[in-house]
Amino acid sequence: MAQKNVVVIGAGVAGLTTAFLLSKKPGYKIVVAAKHMPGDYDIEYASPWAGANYMPVSVTGTEAAEWDKNTWGPFEDLARNHPDAGVHFQECEIHNRTKDVGSATADWFAELLSPTPWFKDVVPNFRALPQESLRPGINSATAFTSVCINTAIYLPWLVSQCLKNGVIFKRAVFNHIQEASSSTIHPAGKVDLVVNCTGLMASKLGGVEDKAVFPARGQIVIVRNDAGKMMDISGTDDGDDEACYVMTRAAGGGTILGGSYQKGNWESGVDPNLAVRIMKRAVELCPALTGGRGIEHLDIIRHGVGLRPVRQGGTRIEKERLGDVWVVHNYGAGGAGYQSSYGCAQATVNLIEDALGIRAKL
Length: 362
Ligand SMILES: Cc1cc2nc3c(=O)[nH]c(=O)nc-3n(C[C@H](O)[C@H](O)[C@H](O)COP(=O)(O)OP(=O)(O)OC[C@H]3O[C@@H](n4cnc5c(N)ncnc54)[C@H](O)[C@@H]3O)c2cc1C
Ligand SMILES: *[C@@H]1O[C@H](CO)[C@@H](O)[C@H](O)[C@H]1NC(C)=O
Ligand SMILES: *[C@@H]1O[C@H](CO)[C@@H](O)[C@H](O)[C@H]1NC(C)=O
Description:
Rossmann fold; 6 helices; binds 2-acetamido-2-deoxy-beta-D-glucopyranose; EC 1.4.3.3; DAO
């Protein structure tokens, strides 16, 4: 069979995971072309800012739950067998306040706050925590073993795996998706298929601008203090678009204190008042951070802001014919780009094979 020439636009977790899975198959020559690459920190590039962990919020029975489910196995394997990927196991506690029922965060977290979520048989050690172990104000809690991903190690690791499999990386900024199939991008001089993994900027890329894509702004503080586990809570007392969570990254990556979920907000600058609220809530949720002392005992590495690429209706994994090239889309994962990454990338690879007539028709 003739070599298939593929251009993946985007080097976030979506583009890199898709290129990685595709590069394991014979017969492809793959170019990843992107404005931002691992190592860059930019408001247009969500992936470096993520915690990141595996805490599914997808609803039982949906495609999204299927993608999340298919992603646990690969991350468990990385945490167990591939320390070079920067992924480790960490215990995870979800704290639940009855007063948060009906709030935006509690709705977003509905599945995570269920006593019987779909993933209870996927992640190890899922259990309810005894009521008497909870601090005042917490009405119930669940716990399980999950993973935390050090994105500063994991994204370059994905690049290295791709390089090992012959993938070519290039800087490029596209004004229109058609430019990705131009003869200057791919060494073969001709492109059979373009994969659209442009995240939030998809909302600006020419071709078809997707008005269903919008940002959910997440502000974080990275500290040297160790949380020892990951913790998340159903809500805060500081308004609907604020959240509270902590997680300690693998391999000296520091502890992420979050956060916020500010829909439609493109502000790249750190809000110092929000930063103080994030730190106050974090030491209350997780006193181990400062040994029960105040936020002045947090040792700050830096503040950060990232924009989750949310898409109304969920991640878009679809193929379409544009002129004489195929385009396969994988964008709009919102706050779940890591925890759905392998499931989404596998679904994308299946569509690539369908489009190119490689997968046997059943
Ligand atoms: C604070 C925060 C915490 C998060 N925590 C988690 C978590 O714990 N778990 C989890 O699963 N997810 C988490 N997320 C979500 C996760 O970060 C995103 O879902 C994921 O990073 C999206 O990846 P992506 O590859 O789609 O987009 P991006 O990482 O934004 O990558 C987009 C790529 O496309 C390129 N690009 C775009 N337009 C063009 C163009 N026109 N020309 C050339 N290149 C272009 C960019 O340069 C970039 O390389 C979090 C996000 C934030 C902000
Ligand atoms: C969290 O609280 C809500 C409201 O009280 C409740 O419906 C839900 O079952 C609780 N979750 C857990 C895990 O106990
Ligand atoms: C590519 O993805 C972006 C989202 O990042 C979307 O807005 C755009 O419509 C897609 N391009 C095409 C040609 O569909």
